[in-house]
Amino acid sequence: MTKGVKQGIVFFSNSDYTRETGGTEKFLSEIVGRLLLKGYFVVQVYPLRRLNRIAKRIVKSKNIEFVSINLNECYYGTFELCKLEKVLNSISYKYSVAFQGVIINQMNYFEKQTLGTQLNRLNLPIRYIVHDFTSVCPYVFWSSKSGTACDKKIVIPCETNCGNCNYLDKAIKNYKSSADFFCDIRSNLDMFICPSMNTLENLKRVFDIHVRCTVRSHLIYGWKHCEIKNKAKKLRIAYMGQPANHKGFAEWNRLVNAASKEQYEFYYLGNSNIYHKDDDVKTIRVDYREKTSKTMQEQLADLNIDIVFQWSKCQETYSYTYFEATSAGCFVITNPNSGNIAAMTLFNKNGIVFEDIDKCIEWIKSGQSRKDVDEYQRTGKKIIDMRMNPDISDFIFDERNLLKENKNNVFKNPVLYIVGKFIYFQH
Q1: What is the pLDDT of residues 221-265, one digit of tens each?
Q2: 239 and 196 in one domain?
Q3: Which residue of 316, 336, 369, 378 sits 20 to 30 Å from the alpha carbon of 44, by its own alpha carbon?
Q4: Mean pLDDT within 173-183
Q5: Do residue 348 and residue 243 come from a single domain?
Q6: Angle between helices 357-366 and 249-258 (to 10 degrees)
Q7: Residues 63 and 149 in one domain
Q8: How many structural domains does the chain have?
Q9: 1 in any annotated domain
Q10: What is the 3-state secondary structure (H, E, C) of 231-278?
Q11: How large is the average pLDDT for residues 54-78?
């Protein structure tokens, strides 16, 4: 590396993680933060979905695509995706950055053909992190023609697998565009990174993978036996995170309405104001971006939450909330379609995977919940010493994988540096 040159990494994701919350955003905040502490220069690229919808209606072209860019977590500007190479070259000139590689977190809201073309022009090694399966099917609600949630595992969209889906044609088109994208960038595609073994198995089932794959957990932790909690008259049940239908929020409200208020107390932990003071559900604000806020696991423990309701209807690749609940010694109730939540619940034996919400409600109303929770708190185990995985080696590239030499060192030539500054101000 030339003296004085910063090593740069380009991240692609569906949203601005500095402003929005979610599992992917939480992950990016942690990883980028660690890279910055080590002196790396980080560029984040994300699509402007609303602007793109408007622009495509006006221009009548599917190829127009606007993205915003953050430099080291600060907003830099908005550009057309087709000008990405020029913009990154300008950044390289201005800030003396040699880009080492590209990390794709999500791509569903990008125009994939344009993105693939731009990535090939950069000629950098590419690593893809599997945060979700929108590359297979973008319709996380996955509603069938009968109006029910899709009960399929991660499968290739086709008539045989998805014949009763309202979104079959669009799903097939999306899957093909994803497969074409991976094929287009195959010469630079370096690695797939999965947060769980369940995710890796699903990935290999739907895509023809010919590059190395690795499983990297977002968290590291130990285990110990649960401690018997202060037994309250009522069992406390909590919903955590985003109050969205694909996370099972409609089923949660069914449970709240069906359960006896004499036997149960209900809590919502998250950053939404969806409930009012006079509702049956008490709101506890939790937002990892707020430094003064207690963590999710701290709130769960302080409130002595007995049960967490994690009814995601899409295949979760990881689920921070599952591990946060387990670290607080909570009993998990979920369904078979929740992906890694169901897989971990079965593996760790710290909850029940119900066939459907009716079975879950029956369990709640019968009083069996008290017996199962008491037994778990006597004999089960919980996560301890949980923290973010500090290993960032999967996100660091070899120095030989830098941009072309003339781009790395262009700022050493004063004439070319002036040209570079001119390009920068034009974009």
Answers
A1: 888 888 777 677 899 999 999 898 889 999 999 999 999 999 999
A2: no
A3: 316
A4: 94
A5: yes
A6: 30
A7: yes
A8: 2
A9: no
A10: CCCCEEEEEECCCCHHHCHHHHHHHHHHCCCCCEEEEEEECCCCCCCC
A11: 82
Q: Reduced to 3 states, what is the DSSP secondary structure of residue 173?
A: helix
Look at residue 151 in the predicted model and tell me its pLDDT: 59
Show the tokens assigned to 406. 């003339």
Cα–Cα dist 379/376, whole Å: 5
Give CA–CA dist 253/237, Å, rounded.
12
Reduced to 3 states (helix: H, G, I; strand: E, B; else coil), residue 283 is: strand
User: What's the predicted TM-score (pTM) here?
Assistant: 0.81
Given the structure tokens 């971006």, which residue do they identify? 289
pLDDT of amino acid 149: 58
- Per DSSP, 169 falls in state H
Q: Are 277 and 193 in a shared domain?
A: no
Taking each helix axis from N to C terminus, what angle separates 357-366 and 368-379, rounded to the nearest 10 degrees? Answer: 90
**Structural domain harbouring 256:** 222-388
- Please report which confidence band the pLDDT of residue 413 belongs to, taking 50, 70 and 90 as the band edges: very low
Give the HSE-up count for residue 57: Cα atoms under 13 Å, Cβ half-sphere.
5
- Token pair recorded at residue 205: 């089932």
Q: Where are the alpha helices (DSSP H) in 16-137?
A: 23-37, 49-59, 84-95, 112-122
The secondary structure element, H or E, covering residue 314 is: none
Query: Which token pair is 177?
Result: 């565009």
Q: Determine the Cα–Cα distance for residues 100 and 105; give it in Å rounded to an integer.
A: 17
